[in-house]
Design goal:
Layout (H helix, E strand, L loop, with lengths): L41 H15 L3 H9 L7 H9 L8 H10 L4 H16 L3 H7 L9 H13 L5 H7 L7 H14 L4 H13 L3 H10 L4 H9 L1 H7 L5 H17 L1 H10 L6 H17 L5 H7 L7 H13 L3 H9 L3 H4 L2 H13 L3 H11 L5 H9 L15 H9 L1 H11 L3 H11 L5 H13 L3 H8 L8 H4 L5 H11 L3 H12 L19 H11 L12 H18 L4 H10 L1 H9 L5 E2 H6 L4 H22 L5 H5 L1 E2 L11
Helix pairs in contact: 1-2, 1-3, 2-3, 4-5, 5-6, 5-7, 7-9, 9-11, 10-11, 10-14, 11-12, 12-13, 12-14, 13-14, 14-15, 14-16, 15-16, 16-17, 16-18, 18-19, 19-21, 21-22, 22-23, 24-27, 25-26, 27-28, 30-33, 31-37, 32-33, 33-34, 34-35, 34-37
Length: 657
């Protein structure tokens, strides 16, 4: 089930601003009911969906044809957008400005401005780019940010420090960030050390294109760089080379080989150790240490010791810390967190573990101060920090009940009504973008009212997301809803399953979107994979099972809950381990458990799960479950107790495949 959790509902367009006046984009007046009707025909909806697809395919002719069929569609801004988007490279600046003026302040205008900024950057039209950039509300596009730095650089501004902080993810660089690196190298703002760091990142993140481009900037063979990333054995066989860049390419190959064979990588590095500088040798060991860490190899700690003096990437710093946690080496935990960049160091994850390291060394007051910094965050590490301060997870008292007068404006809000229309068309990305755009200027009470409006319209993922934004007033029935309890509670009771854990998992899996589908075919409330559904159905005697039954709510809950029960039994009752198995598969969870040499604190086990998706998943599920338990039982709960310890275990006869 690994990677099956990238569901459409999880795609958030970001928060944006409330601004569309109803007069700009007229919609029918809202009915008194919670779900206002929008008069349009099925034929119009079909034409709109075809228009959207034509725009996605950059088919300007088809887009114009479908748009012409929709002169009175209830969402005219999107008709205009999808008509214009395929022509953005050929459209005049005046035409694009006319669109932006017509729909000024809207989510789709900000989307168009994003598109135009990318086009202006590609054309190096810095005059128009610089004029439009301050008007880009979200400013959440990596490519746009790279073009922004490039625009400043070509004017002679010093932007190297900002670029170093930004350029951390080579697989997502695209033309903009690649051009930024080249511009900085050619202008002298990036020196050889900067380019070598980019080459290391490209190798670490398996980004062949950026590796080739960086090698070319260093005056080295693009082919050799590509081989180091994709065919490390060939690159290692070629040898170390003479220049610093050739050495770095060899070290990239060492790191890539370590993903397949730690032993062969170590042999290759030792063989050529005399040809490398001390820093280069340490870098080679850091590359091997990263691979060993992600494999949870018992040798990882030793490799990290050999890497002393190496320039470490952010990923390497985090994995060095995780391995130190697994080994109980609090001195290294503290030292490594202290060497992280400030933004990474201030993340709640590393704030919490720094506090734990300080406490382990006897600096209790400093530790308490760090716990206090994050204890008000209702998240995995915020809850753990709260417990370190002597408190348990409890449900805060609700504010004053919402009135009908407070909810009524939500029904009249044009952006929220557009969102409802998109949700009715199963266009969750667009619906979420419109919904979030309207939340930016809402007060706490308005956020709660919008969440309640979402509940009334059975859009529970928006209810949860909206309610989570409040900081002073709370409604945990919105944040942690328990729909379909008439089905779920008897099922969990029959299985002896913790209902809070089941709801915590569903909240993470689908945000209660009953028709959610993942990119790999997982379906429904509990995101059950077809193969898993078939396996569980056979085990519980559901003889008439067919894959289409996964979309049936009762069947989805029945199969999902039974599968949770199976993975929990195989995990000897450990919810962290069972949650990992539900997400990544029992085989992977079994492999991770097999690396344990003794009992391990559940929080450390969760933090050192090799897959980023599963690591976040387990933490979120257990945090959710703790909140649900507090809500159901009406008393404070301990996340630490729920995490418990994860113990090693040998092979079992009833292990799941």
């Amino acid at each position: 089930m690994f990677s099956s959790k990238i569901i459409a509902v999880a795609v958030l367009a970001g928060s944006c601003s409330l601004s569309f006046a109803a007069a700009q984009e007229p919609l029918p007046a809202p009915a008194p009911a919670a779900a206002p009707s929008l008069p349009d025909t099925r034929a119009d909806d079909d034409a709109f969906l075809l228009l959207r697809e034509a725009a996605r395919q950059d088919d300007a002719v088809a887009a114009a044809t479908y748009a012409a069929r929709l002169p009175n569609y209830p969402i005219p801004s999107y008709v205009d957008y999808y008509r214009l988007k395929p022509r953005i490279r050929d459209a005049s600046a005046d035409e694009i400005r006319a669109f932006l003026a017509k729909w000024q302040g809207s989510a789709i205008a900000d989307r168009m401005r994003n598109d135009w900024l990318l086009e202006l950057g590609r054309n190096r039209d810095w005059a128009n780019f610089d004029q439009q950039l301050p008007l880009f509300v979200l400013n959440d596009d990596l490519q746009v940010k790279c073009y922004a730095l490039m625009s400043r650089a070509v004017k002679g501004e010093r932007v190297a420090a900002d670029a170093r902080a930004l350029l951390q993810n080579p697989p997502n660089y695209g033309e903009a960030c690649a051009a930024l690196v080249a511009t900085l190298a050619q202008s002298g703002q990036f020196d050889t050390n900067d380019l070598l760091a980019q080459l290391r990142l490209a190798g670490e993140q398996h980004a062949t294109g950026p590796a080739k481009r960086t090698a070319a900037l260093l005056g080295e063979s693009e082919t050799h760089a590509a081989q180091a990333v994709d065919f490390p054995a060939l690159a290692m066989a070629r040898g170390v080379g003479a220049s610093r860049a050739e050495h770095e390419i060899y070290l990239v190959a060492i790191g890539r080989m370590a993903r397949t064979s730690l032993n062969l990588a170590a042999i290759g590095l030792n063989k050529n150790a005399s040809k490398l500088s001390p820093t280069e040798l340490a870098t080679g060991w850091a590359n091997i240490a990263l691979a060993a860490s992600m494999a949870l190899s018992p040798e990882a700690g030793g490799y990290w010791k050999k890497s002393a003096g190496a320039p470490l990437s952010q990923d390497q710093l985090q994995w060095k810390t995780r391995i130190a946690l697994r080994e109980g080496d609090w001195k290294t935990v503290r030292a490594t967190i202290e060497s992280m960049p400030p933004q990474l160091r201030s993340d709640p994850t590393w704030t919490y573990w720094m506090a734990r390291a300080m406490a382990a060394e006897g600096s209790r007051e400093a530790a308490q101060a760090l716990y206090t910094r994050i204890a008000d965050q209702n998240s995995f590490y915020g809850q753990l920090a709260m417990e370190e301060l002597g408190q348990q997870v409890a449900i805060p008292p609700p504010g004053a009940p919402l009135t009908a007068a407070e909810i009524a404006p939500m029904s009249a809000n044009p952006g929220l009504r557009r969102a409802l229309k998109f949700f009715s068309l199963r266009l969750r990305f667009e619906g979420t973008r419109e919904w979030n755009w309207e939340l930016r200027k809402f007060s706490e009470r308005e956020l709660l009212a919008a969440a309640e409006f979402a509940r009334q319209n059975e859009i529970l993922d928006r209810m949860v997301n909206t309610s989570e934004r409040t900081r002073t007033e709370f409604d945990y029935t919105q944040r942690f809803p328990s729909p379909h309890n008439d089905i779920l509670q008897p099922t969990t009771q029959n299985l002896g399953l913790d209902r809070a854990w089941v709801y915590g998992l569903i909240r993470q899996e689908s945000r209660f979107v009953t028709d959610a589908r993942s990119g790999v075919g997982a379906s429904g409330l509990m995101q059950v994979m077809p193969s898993t559904g078939q396996y569980v159905a056979r085990k519980i005697g559901l003889t008439d099972f067919v894959y289409s039954m996964l979309s049936d709510l009762r069947t989805n809950i029945l199969l999902g809950a039974n599968y949770m029960n199976m993975v929990l039994a195989n995990a000897d009752g450990s919810q962290p381990l069972a949650s990992a198995a539900y997400n990544a598969g029992p085989g992977r969870a079994r492999t991770w458990r097999a690396t344990l040499s003794g009992p391990m604190e559940g929080a450390i086990f969760a933090e050192s799960i090799p897959y980023p998706e599963t690591r976040a998943y387990v933490k979120n599920v257990l945090s959710n479950a703790t909140n649900y338990a507090a809500l159901f039982e009406r008393k404070p709960q301990s996340l630490k107790a729920r995490l418990g310890v994860v113990t090693p275990n040998g092979a079992r006869a009833n292990q799941l495949p």
